Amino acid sequence: MIHLRKGITPEQGHWRIPEGTFEDEHGRKGFFGRASHLYHKNPPTDWISIEGECKPYALDTRKLNDKQEYPVFVLVNDDVRIGTWTLTSPPEWYFRNVDGDLLYFVHRGQGKIESDYGSLAFQKGDYIVVPKGTTHRLVPTEKSKFLVIEGTGEYEQPTRGILGHHAIYDPALIKIAEPEEYDNSKSEYELRIKRMGKITKVVYGFNPLDVVGWKGDLFVWKLNISQIKPVMSHRVHLPPSVHTTFVNQNFVVCSFVPRPAESDPDALRVPFWHRNIDYDEVIFYHEGNFFSRDGIDKEMITFHPYGIHHGPHPKAYENRDEKEFLDEYAVMVDTKNPLFLTEKGKEIEWKEYWKSWQIRKQKASI
Ligand SMILES: [Fe+2]
Fold first, then answer.
1. Residues contacting residue 137 through CB under 8 Å, at least 6 positions apart
2. How many Cβ atoms are within 10 Å of 106's Cβ, its own excluded?
3. Residue 317, pLDDT score
4. How far is 345 from 53, CA to CA, in rounded Å?
5. DSSP label at 45?
6. Under a CB-based contact definition with an 8 Å cutoff, are residues 102 and 130 in contact?
């Protein structure tokens, strides 16, 4: 192990940052690989202009709130598709997605999910895991909006390592679908299978959700974001990877939940700058006051592709020592492979977002 130090640096990262400098983590493999902390004279996000695609994006999914027949994906790659689905009433058909596992995060609304494995009530803040190939239907009792994260691989829980397996959330908080006898009075029932992004319609003369029992270790389950007990240190800002809720093939899903700010007066109390060179980063803003992001409201998605910096917004950095509690719920998706904006994603982009990081330019125009 070699750990070098050159020029002006603090004793350790994220702590007692030298006056007038801005800390930038240049690291590999998310927050798990080799990394150095660089101390800049200027915030690396104080740019004058950006030309090209490697820039911060913000997408306003409130523009997708009308009823949609299928989930609308805005950011995609071979491992993961991210989008939203708004439903005002249950679809008349059952859904079987064979393009991957589905993770529905209930942003708003309530109801139940019906499936091969039975029913499970849902409410705001639930993460519902639906394994690939499960026949199911979302049955909202009021207008409901879901963040939908379709993963090519399987959703698994993260390893807790030295924290022990009751950390982050106690496995006892997981709720599993219970068999239910569904209506079978109609003469026809339609199943829609999504495979390779294309829909096939199959009609049965009976309700295909006719399972009377099941056993095994693959099933529909859920966890509510409000039940997550965040890992933190009062002395040093921990990397976002400690907030990992699910792991899948080449991506992770993390939950930011309300938590106290670091109380040690020497600790950095806002996220450090980074250019996340091995991962693209997506955040969906669910509830609360998004302290470190200016101009970002509930239901928006930010997308920070690898290569360009992000970190605290100017106002958050200025007020960093006043904030004692972070009152936010947000879902982050970090992907190993680059994401692409779909046409729908491009349509809902807030094009001025990259300017919200500027300090000099904004000061000059006052
Ligand atoms: Fe980040």
1. 90, 91, 93, 94, 95, 113, 114, 115, 209
2. 25
3. 86
4. 14
5. T
6. yes
Structure tokens at 15: 């702590």
207 vs 191: CA distance, rounded Å: 9
pLDDT the model gives residue 171? 92
Query: How much is the pLDDT for 225?
Result: 98
According to CATH, the superfamily of the domain at 66-225 is Jelly Rolls (2.60.120.10)
Fold (CATH) for 22-58+232-365: Jelly Rolls (2.60.120)
Is the CB of residue 362 less than 8 Å from the CB of residue 295?
no
Domain ranges of the chain: 22-58+232-365, 66-225
pLDDT of residue 318: 84
Report the separation in Å between the CA atom of 58 and the middle of ligand 1, taken as the mean of its atom positions: 14
Q: What's the confidence (pLDDT) of residue 362?
A: 66
| Fold match, 22-58+232-365 / 66-225 | yes
Q: How far apart are the CA of 74 and the centre of ligand 1, in A?
A: 19
**Ligand 1 centroid vs 154 CA: distance in angstroms?**
24
Question: C-alpha dihedral over 110, 115, 118, 123, to 10 degrees?
Answer: -10
As a whole number of Å, the CA-based R_g of the chain is: 22
Least Cα distance to 129 among 111, 143, 113, 107 occurs for: 113
Q: For residues 104 and 127, what is the distance between their CA atoms, to the nearest angstrom? A: 6
pLDDT at 22: 95
Task: Report, as ranges of residue numbers, the positions in the chain whose pLDDT lies below 70.
Answer: 291-292, 361-366
Taking the centre of ligand 1 as the mean of its atom positions, its distance from the CA of residue 316, in whole angstroms, is 15
Tell me the three state secondary structure of residue 61.
Answer: helix
pLDDT of residue 295: 83
Question: What pLDDT is recorded for position 140?
Answer: 98
The pLDDT of residue 30: 84
Nearest to 302 by CA among 353, 248, 249: 353
pTM, full prediction:
0.95
Distance 313 CA to ligand 1 centre (A): 12
Q: What is the pLDDT of residue 55?
A: 96
Q: Tell how far CA 320 is from the center of its chain.
A: 24
pLDDT at position 269: 85
